[in-house]
Amino acid sequence: MKLVLGYQIHVLARKVVEKELGKIGVTYKYHNSSQLELLEEIPYSHLQKLKKNLEEYGIHIKETQRDQFIQKIKDTVTELIYSEEYYSFKTSNILAEKLNLSYGYIANTFSEYTLNTLENYIILQKIERAKEMILSDEYTLTEIAYKLNYSSVGHLSSQFKKITGLTSTSFMRIIKQRNLLLTKYND
Amino acid sequence: MKQISILLADDDDDDRLFFSEAIEQLDLDIALNTVVNGVELIDYLKHPETRLPELIFLDLNMPIKGGIECLIEMRRTDILKNLSVAIYSTSSAQKDIDECLIHGANIYIKKPSDFGILKSILYKVITINHQYHSTGLSKDNFLMVI
């Protein structure tokens, strides 16, 4: 038996897109058949997943160049902070070199399109990395300060306190007590 | 830049007004919703039509269901587990701060009485939280006392 199929490509595409958006649980609205707006911010990792899933159906999400550029800055910052040689870098020089643009241009674009300055973003990321290292119990605070390119352990401690409002000791104590409580819930 | 949605749960009329005026004066595109007690908060968050906010400001002392109870309930509910919660309280006792953070609050704000200070605190908290939110950073280690 032969079957003759008729397609309505746009209906098909829409169903697939709706299914994938549903998996992420995000609200959205269509502007036209090829343009839709997500009504809430989703983490970049979710966007990447959505992109990958849709590509299996031959549907591509076109990101704007600006979004790609901002993401590239963020990725480069993360890569630097996690690098073993970070202690020897001057962040602004390396960023400019890696992106092949002046630091001033990079920093201005970043603060224009995010709610933060690039300098603050880098500090926030360094403190996040410091938290991971503190919680891993593998490093002393002095080692962490060195690895993250702080001039002294005092500089790291004061920046940690300024950003989080907590000392690194209180931070560690609270996270440990929280995890203990979580284990209790789950039992 | 997308609009940032935030939710305030506070039973005090004056405090809610003070808060929303400060939010309006920030140079940010914010959609603010308010609820007046803990029961209303949990009902709102669990309602299937609700678009979950990027950040919740939670008053500690509310009748019927207080801030801590709401926090514990949210952290034990799958869909609400990862929401950012800022406790908004008149208490600056270390015991209260510790208890909130241990039970899963991300941010602890000591309610200021000065309007200018409130604005700068809110701006800082909302923009830092937005970095976690939009970069997809894990909020497990996101603690802040201000």
Q: In order across it, which strands form the biggest sheet of chain B?
A: 2-1-3-4-5-6
Order of helices and strands of chain A: HEEHHHHHHHH
CATH topology of chain B: Rossmann fold
Please give the radius of gyration of chain B in angstroms. Answer: 14 Å
Q: Which overall shape of chain B is indicated by the principal axes computed on the Cα atoms?
A: globular
Which structural class best describes the helix and strand composition of chain A?
A: mainly alpha
Describe this structure in words.
The complex is a heterodimer of chains A (about 190) and B (about 150). Chain A is mainly alpha-helical and about 190 residues long. Chain A folds into two domains: about 10-60, no CATH class; about 85-185, Orthogonal Bundle (Arc Repressor Mutant, subunit A), CATH 1.10.10. Chain A has helices at about 10-25, 45-55, 65-80, 90-100, 105-115, 120-135, 140-145, 155-165, 170-185, and strands at about 30, 35-40. With about 150 residues, chain B is an alpha/beta fold. Chain B is built from five helices and six strands, in the order E-H-E-H-E-H-E-H-E-H-E. A six-stranded parallel β-sheet of chain B has the order 2-1-3-4-5-6, with helices on both faces. In chain B, helix 1 (about 15-25) packs across helix 5 (about 115-135) and helix 2 (about 40-45) packs parallel to helix 3. Classes of the chains: A mainly alpha (about 190), B alpha/beta (about 150).
